[in-house]
Amino acid sequence: xxxxxxxxxxxxxxxxxxxxxxxxxxxxxxxxxxxxxxxxxxxxxxxxxxxxxxxxxxxxxxxxxxxxxxxxxxxxxxxxxxxxxxxxxxxxxxxxxxxxxxxxxxxxxxxxxxxxxxxxxxxxxxxxxxxxxxxxxxxxxxxxxxxxxxxxxxxxxxxxxxxxxxxxxxxxxxxxxxxxxxxxxxxxxxxxxxxxxxxxxxxxxxxxxxxxxxxxxxxxxxxxxxxxxxxxxxxxxxxxxxxxxxxxxxxxxxxxxxxxxxxxxxxxxxxxxxxxxxxxxxxxxxxxxxxxxxxxxxxxxxxxxxxxxxxxxxxxxxxxxxxxxxxxxxxxxxxxxxxxxxxxxxxxxxxxxxxxxxxxxxxxxxxxxxxxxxxxxxxxxxxxxxxxxxxxxxxxxxxxxxxxxxxxxxxxxxxxxxxxxxxxxxxxxxxxxxxxxxxxxxxxxxxxxxxxxxxxxxxxxxxxxxxxxxxxxxxxxxxxxxxxxxxxxxxxxxxxxxxxxxxx
Length: 504
What we know:
Layout: H1 9-12, H2 20-24, H3 26-43, H4 51-60, H5 68-71, H6 80-89, H7 100-121, H8 126-146, H9 148-153, H10 160-176, H11 184-199, H12 204-218, H13 225-249, H14 264-276, H15 283-304, H16 308-329, H17 340-358, H18 362-389, H19 394-403, E1 409-414, H20 417-426, E2 436-440, E3 452-457, E4 470-473, E5 476-484, E6 493-499
Parallel strand pairs: 1-2, 1-3
Antiparallel strand pairs: 3-6, 4-5, 5-6
Helix pairs in contact: 3-7, 3-8, 7-8, 7-10, 7-17, 8-17, 10-11, 10-12, 11-13, 12-13, 12-16, 14-15, 15-16, 15-17, 16-17
């Protein structure tokens, strides 16, 4: 349902031509950008799985049929569409294969961001928009493609990359819908909304935002209210009915898992830092205000350009629907990934603002080039750590432990059975042939204690004992033997301690 808007003062200004090369080869330029960021995402697949991925695999392996994904596994770690993909693969020959579906959808998200960027930049006169819209297309791809938050979850076997992809696909269908194709785009919208909901429940955001967009598009039309109401129902009633059935049959029966208690402001600060490419320490002081400023600026530009239904869509997607969800659910376990669709919407708004600034003339283009360079460098630093440390170096830690243990049975304990034992059990083969792990649960140690003690730390937590190399625990003396770090936003560091009484 395209927005029929009149161009305002902003759109009425003359647009400066973009690069001649881009004008001649727009498809090639976009293809190169998508290929680069798809390659970055692909490179991030090849590291250890972390707890939530391993947990999903262990649960899927117990199911007798694909239908039991919705009927038997009732936990919020179950992202059904991704779980179905895992079900088809288990057991895979290599762990990175489990991440191919998120990688594919994450790479498609870059292309969709580009196409949305082109569509939303169109002023009322399409002839004047051709070259500027091409720049907007590339900016959308670069911002969504280069953001560490989206890179991270495009290389993790969970539902966050798929929900972002299908949410953007639903938005794309809304922007493309017109009276000359009454069935194709609404059907695509229905399908995208349903797949997004099956990927993760945060897709409700795009359902609400899409309804607001359609209502805002139809409101200024001169057709009878009955006809407008029927068009609104035609687009939005099928996904709404699917959501109701999905909620009643699956969502309301889910158990909620635990997790670290993080304040909403801290989670939003981390979200902003990993979205725009700033250090996490500057999340609340700089990254979050910057992201809010850019988002507000994009909304103002859309409104002044006469694209008020589009502005209402983004306002609902980025701000109103997440706030409504938090108010309705009273949820207290916050994490940046729960706002990933909002972050993608903010990046699309930023792309619109940068394209508008680019059209002002050569002087603005130097500033835009510097902004994009800083964005890519900052996010590149986050991504480099993901490439180096992954979501934890669990196999490397176990190999190090095995090399320093003379006995065929290696005894291990940790500070959190739920988090560490599944990872140890899954990667126990890393200890090598002829070696086995014996895990001592919390408060159930033998008299001599375990040979090894694993202490884990999440993002931003201080090292055990303030970084001390010697610890006393359970009456035993442990000495630090190695630190195996991880990259935010998933997994944890392992601090490996050797029992000095057993392994001097």
